[in-house]
Automatic annotation (TrEMBL):
Protein name (record): Polyphosphate:nucleotide phosphotransferase
InterPro entries on file: P-loop_NTPase, PPK2-rel_1, PPK2-related
Translocase recorded as keyword: no
Single annotated GO MF: phosphotransferase activity, phosphate group as acceptor
NCBIfam families linked: PPK2_rel_1
Transmembrane annotation, as ranges: none
GO biological process, one term: polyphosphate metabolic process
UniProt keywords, alphabetically: Transferase
Pfam families hit by this protein: PPK2
Organism domain of life: Bacteria
Ranges where the Polyphosphate kinase-2-related domain occurs: 39-262
Length: 284
């Protein structure tokens, strides 16, 4: 069995959010569509990282030639869900020249003076780039909704607005890959505990994370509404069980590879006479 065949179902099919799917039904410890186990992961991840890197560089090379297309990976998930691990172990396999990483934290005073999509628009990937949003405009219907940071009619209007915004992006040539990562409360507790136990992980720990953890029922509602209202044909959500880090990383790698493959990229042809250049070089 070759390594990619360990996938019995395409992650793009099996992880796509479907109308009626409920968050409480997600088995966060499962590995949908994957027939292997943890032992298979390292070799497969290396193999697929290489494939991703090749396609990502091809996108970048085309961008250098004026291709306006780009890919945008949107990562959402509660603290410890593994967003950082995706950035490091999946996107990190790519050529940094073609990666545009942006994390979105609490808006600055300047950002708060603008429409919530203002800071998002400024960070969009340009032609040839793979953009990564570590949190995103979805915080404006998640944390903002849970903490009543604006009135319900204000956040309530954002779902349609976000759909229209993403439609505009896809029509302008950005393929959007939206990944919602879910860990169980027990797994989150374990990961927070690991962070507290290890001084090298203290930088990842934020006391506020425990307050958000206590609000999980409200977050679950907000995540459910997000999935129900903003999973569209042009920008569907993928729901990724994330208790097994090795699985979520493999799955997101496949989602990115499939998206890049759908662009039907090839290496840009030389815009000079190769033969003539070889001749010149020989005597240079
Ligand atoms: P992380 O927790 O992802 O490692 P940070 O420590 O920068 O990153 O925390 C980001 C925090 O910013 C999160 O608690 C998140 O909910 C919050 N945040 C992001 N976007 C917004 C927003 N639009 N309004 C309010 N809070 C936000």
């Amino acid at each position: 069995m070759t390594l990619p065949e360990l996938w019995t179902h395409k992650p793009q099919k099996i992880l796509a959010f479907k109308a009626g799917d409920r968050i409480e039904d997600i088995d966060t410890n499962s590995s949908p569509g994957f027939d292997g186990d943890k032992d298979d992961a390292p070799e497969l991840q290396r193999d697929r990282n290489e494939r991703f890197a090749e396609l990502q560089e091809m996108l970048y090379a085309n961008g250098r030639r004026g291709d306006h297309r780009s890919v945008l990976l949107v990562l959402q998930g509660m603290d410890t869900a593994g967003k950082g691990g995706i950035v490091e172990h999946v996107v990190g396999a790519g050529n940094p020249m073609g990666i545009q990483y942006k994390s979105f934290g609490v808006p600055t005073p300047e950002e708060l003076q603008h429409h919530y999509l203002w800071r998002i628009r400024k960070a969009l990937p340009t032609g040839g780039q793979v953009g990564v949003f570590d949190r995103s405009h979805y915080e404006d219907v998640l944390v903002v909704r849970v903490h009543n940071l604006v009135a319900p009619d204000v956040w309530g209007a954002r779902y349609d607005e976000i759909n229209a915004f993403e439609k505009e992006l896809t029509e302008a040539g950005t393929s959007i890959v939206k990944v919602a990562m879910f860990v169980s409360l027990e797994e989150q507790k374990q990961r927070l505990s690991d962070r507290l136990e290890d001084p090298e992980k203290h930088w990842k720990y934020n006391p506020g994370d425990l307050d958000e953890r206590a609000l999980w029922p409200q977050y679950r509602e907000a995540y459910q509404a997000m999935l129900d209202k903003t999973s569209t044909d042009h920008a569907p959500w993928y729901v990724v069980p994330a208790d097994k880090k090795w699985y979520s990383r493999l799955a997101v790698t496949e989602l990115l590879i499939e998206t890049l493959k759908s662009l039907q990229l090839s290496w840009p042809p030389a815009d000079f006479d190769v033969k003539a250049e070889k001749k010149r070089l020989a005597t240079a």
